[in-house]
Amino acid sequence: MIETEGLTHLHLRVRGLDASLRFYQEVFGMRERFRDGHLVFLNTPGSGDTITLNPEDGPVGGGGVDHFGFRLKPGVSIDEAVAAVEAAGGRLARRGERSPGIEYAYVADPDGYMIEL
Prior knowledge:
This protein is an alpha+beta fold. The protein is built from 2 helices and 8 strands; from the N terminus they run E-H-E-E-E-E-H-E-E-E.
């Protein structure tokens, strides 16, 4: 079992960024925290949750879950986490570093849903 601090984010592909942003702000009171290129990160005030809105054009269109993420507890290594995923029937999709010493991995569950660790 991988020890995590729980579900941290949900990454959504959206048809219309402005409409989706307005929806989550007006309906759930979420606030825009920052942008990273074309991605918009929203958070419910006072919580640790995040929804990332990713506008996509073209044949992929909008709608759908791109991936969701779990934050590993301090001391849990990416290697341990990936090994646990693979032992349970999942697979490593890719891994790397966001910045020096800040590792991440994208793994897939048995149905192909992407999970960021």
